[in-house]
Amino acid sequence: MIATYDARVERAQHLKTIYSFASEILDFYEAICAAQAGVKVGLVKALRGSRPLAGETLRERMDVDLVVPYAVDAWSGIVPVSPEPLKEFVTEYLRGSKERLAVSLQAHMDRGGTDEGSVDSREELLARILLEPYAELLAPQITVANAEVSGNLCPRCNGRPVVGVLRLEGDGGKRFLKCSFCSSEWEFRRIYCAYCGETREGSLPVFVAEKFPHIRVEACDTCRHCLRTVDLTKDGNAVPAVDDLAAIPLGLWAEEYGYRRIHGNLLGT
Question: What is the DSSP letter of 131?
Answer without folding.
Answer: H
